[in-house]
Amino acid sequence: MKIIDLHSDTILGMKMKGVEDFENNDFMIDLTKLKSGESYVQALGFFDFKPMSNYDYEKFKENEAFASKMFEKYSDQVVIVKSTSEIKKYEDSGKQMFMLTKEDIGCINGSLDILKAEYDYGFRIMSLTWNFENCVAYGNTTDVPEGETDSAKFPHMNDGLKPFGKEAVEYMNELGIIIDCSHLSDGGFWDLIDICKGPFIASHSNCREVCGHVRNLTDEMIKALADKGGVSGLNFCPEFIDEKNGSTIDGMIRHLQHFLNVGGEDILACGTDSDGIGGPLEIPDFSHMQELIMAMEKAGFTERQIEKFGYKNAMRVFEDVLG
Ligand SMILES: [Zn+2]
Which of 119, 141, 151, 196 is the most exposed place for a label (fewest CB within 10 A)? Predict the structure, then answer.
């Protein structure tokens, strides 16, 4: 079954460790593992994560420069896709397709011009926040950011989008950027439900009812996201699957069944969070992806539901937002 994976942190991990081999490396994702795991389109996440409250656009540009060098080096094997028509165009080319995604748009520092520049670079999926406050919204964490002394100001889980955040959402709708609510505060999620035109996604979030982590979605959120035509990508992170038993395939199936029961089959999607997560993983890297598909078959998911999880639901959102 071909797979669209809506979230990975591999490219930044490679930059941080100085790894430039994208064909065979020790990360959860490389070109060889993607091929054997039957990747269709892989999201490549770009993350500007330090310092927490003062987003450094120049640092972010360094990540882009590293990635651009990588795409250049492997230009005979990889292609960046920005729409469903480009996916259709390249699907039989033999090249690995990637979609550029941004985790946390804080580095736009309140500028719609920078947001546009990032769109022009090629980003098509953007999450509004990571775990902490930025110029658009607040993250969903109970942690107090490093260096912050006034802990009474936290958490911000019920706080909604900032006025500039609402402007940014409107502009993202206009440009045709898929908005990602993973990491966003619960309050921000509900604002998005109100103001986002068309579907948005949770690229890497599970079910809070199955595993009570704040990064997961409540049943009300799952229903609202489904009504909006969005999807939620199954995250392989041990803490988001099962606090006690960690990242097992059985645990993943429990989340998928809950998504299905609460949100229906059109919300199912995959968002591994590869190389953004640690700990023992029953699916240790992308080459093992089809083991999850086999487990879905065994658990009684229909062929149609598995196809929707694998790539069809994500393609539907791509089509709706990107064209
Ligand atoms: Zn994340």
Answer: 151
- List, for residues 24-62, the tens digit of each pLDDT value: 999 999 999 999 999 999 999 998 765 555 678 888 899
Second CATH level (architecture) for the domain 3-322: Alpha-Beta Barrel (3.20)
Torsion of Cα atoms, 39 then 196 then 232 then 10, to 10°: 50
Going from the Cα of 115 to the center of ligand 1, the distance in angstroms, rounded, reads: 20
Helix, coil or strand: residue 53: coil
Q: Cα(9)–Cα(12) distance, rounded to whole angstroms?
A: 6
Span from the CA of 273 to the centroid of ligand 1 (angstroms): 7
Q: Where are the domains of the chain?
A: 3-322
Distance 52 CA to ligand 1 centre (A): 14
Q: What's the CA gap between 236 and 292, in Å, rounded?
A: 11
Which residues, listed in sequence order, are joined to residue 42 by a DSSP beta bridge? 5, 98
Q: With 0.85 as the threshold, say if the pTM is over it.
A: yes
Query: 60 CA to middle of ligand 1, Å?
Result: 16
